[in-house]
Amino acid sequence: MSDLRKYEYLFLGGGKGGKSLAMDLARAGKRVAIIERGMIGGSCINVACIPTKTLIRNAGRHHDCASHGPSDARGADMIAVGHNVASVVNAMVEMNRQAFDASGLDLVIGTGRFAGPRQIRVHAEDGTEQLFEGENVYINTGTIAVVPDVPGLRDLRPLTHVEALKLTELPSHLIVIGGGYIGLEMAQAFRRLGSKVTLIHDGPRLAMREDEDIGAEILRAFVDDGIDVKLNARLTEASGAHGTAVSLTLDDGTIVEGTHILVATGRKPVTDDIGLELAGVARDAHGFIEVDDTLKTSAERTWAIGEVARTPMFTHASFDDYRVLKAGIEGRVRSTRSRTVPYALFIDPELGRIGLSETEANARGLRFRVAKLPMASVPRARTNGTTRGFMKALVDSDSARIIGFAMLGSGAGEVTTAVQMAMLGDLPYTAVRDAIIAHPLMSEGLNLLFATLK
Ligand SMILES: Cc1cc2nc3c(=O)[nH]c(=O)nc-3n(C[C@H](O)[C@H](O)[C@H](O)COP(=O)(O)OP(=O)(O)OC[C@H]3O[C@@H](n4cnc5c(N)ncnc54)[C@H](O)[C@@H]3O)c2cc1C
Fold this sequence. Notes:
Blueprint (H helix, E strand, L loop, with lengths): L4 E8 L3 H12 L4 E5 L6 H4 L2 H17 L12 H26 L2 E4 L1 E6 L2 E5 L5 E11 L3 E3 L15 H4 L8 E5 L3 H13 L2 E5 L11 H13 L3 E3 L4 E7 L3 E6 L4 E4 L1 E4 L3 E3 L6 H4 L22 E3 L10 H15 L13 E3 L5 E5 L2 H6 L4 E7 L4 H6 L5 E7 L5 E7 L3 H13 L4 H5 L11 H7 L3
Parallel strand pairs: 1-2, 1-6, 2-3, 6-16, 8-9, 8-14, 9-10
Antiparallel strand pairs: 4-5, 5-6, 7-15, 11-12, 12-13, 17-18, 18-21, 19-20, 20-21
Helix pairs in contact: 1-4, 1-9, 3-4, 3-6
The structure holds flavin-adenine dinucleotide.
């Protein structure tokens, strides 16, 4: 083993928040290193947001071109799709590599494990090891997909999103397990690429964190796409040969047969084998690193960033962790407490969300009014032929402020950002109702939505 390499700032894992902070510090002349086991730029670019959204775009195009909608007989050319996904990913990885270089940080490729407080031993692929020490250490190792412990399932080596993105042949019948955000995006994408798709979900409705009307509308859209959705269905056994013929038994005795399985049933933090006990870093019962609202861990001069610290599982939330940490370094105060994190779900119709859902507002006993508008009432939805879905806003009965917004419809994510600006500006809903919004935009629906409130 060679000499100890010392840095002022040392990052274990190069996720969104960590790499952003590392580059800032390096540009400011600090001695900085990122230890990354291979995904330059983190999971978003390599195996998550960017490739999945590119896959979805390919699927949408294929679906639009197919004269009679999704058809098993005319599946997409997965070699071409794969090339497109890889070219987008590779270009973004290269942009990240160049930005790292330009910032002056040291990128260390290898798997890191704590050897003691603020000391990390790195194993490179060529078998060499090196010990690193940081005056300040940041852990940004993210999460990975969990394959549930169902008899026979792990032996089949089912796909997760990572392997699904590398398929060179279209599954003729894909069984997706899990009706959360990742399962929904992947199920619809593969259906629209031309696979037969069965979606198995262990719950009474899809997208369980959303209000019932949203889950119901997504279900209708999926059924219309030809996806066979099985709700309240718990998997009890799996058998067969993955890629050829698989058979899943559900708790009511139903047998579901297909060719491939994609598991999207949850994620676990990457904390099992990184030596946190040697670093003095405490974890919670689920394995996430315990942090305070400035992301400080139980160990001296050691912080955690992103999903591993139980930050909401979105790239922009990890990026906000960067803001929190940067403020701390600069002596300003910013915390993770009470932050409002919007998000989008890239299915058709798209879901945009910010603030409270109706279910959450009711659970908190708030006094609020609900405005709801079918997308069919929005002129731009008519011109585009995308009339499925609705907009829904929650308005505080006393202050007239918007406390929550959901939209299922085309462009929902962007419209949600417009609502977010009103919320950030602390505007009453009447300001949005009476704003002059260009016609015919999807956002114009906000005028109509808030006009429904008397
Ligand atoms: C399929 C899918 C789709 C998604 N789509 C979206 C989306 O559309 N929008 C959105 O906002 N979010 C999306 N997400 C979530 C988003 O990808 C993450 O929230 C985001 O990447 C932030 O992650 P992070 O900063 O916690 O760490 P990550 O980006 O996960 O980075 C962790 C890094 O640590 C490295 N690492 C781990 N252990 C070690 C070790 N021991 N040594 C060295 N390196 C190590 C990993 O290789 C990885 O690069 C999606 C996630 C998935 C799975």
